[in-house]
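Researcher: Good morning. I'm working through a list of sequences from a screen, and I'd like to move beyond sequence-only analysis. For each chain I'm collecting a predicted structure so we can compare shapes side by side. This is the next one on the list. No need for commentary yet; just the structure.
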Amino acid sequence: MSKLLDDKDIITLIIHRLESIYSDVGEIKITAAKQEENLKEHMRRSDLLEEEVNLLKTQLKPLQNYLVMLQGLAKALALIGVAVSIIAGLAKISHLF
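Model: Good morning. Structure tokens for this chain:
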């Protein structure tokens, strides 16, 4: 049932296979070119986002410093409140005696 291929059939088969490979390589090149363009766009957008983050950090730094100052002030006020409460409590106790 199996018949041997003659030289012409073998050459035709090789040509068809080479054409298929050539077509596949062409598609791979097209895909690679598209991916390269997508990568360039992704890198451009990443750079823009990184610049935006750095700008926001710069703009928020004074606010962070202000919040640290307010936290210190709140702690100082809490300590003053505790001290006043203790003094007031001692004053009441001293009036009892």
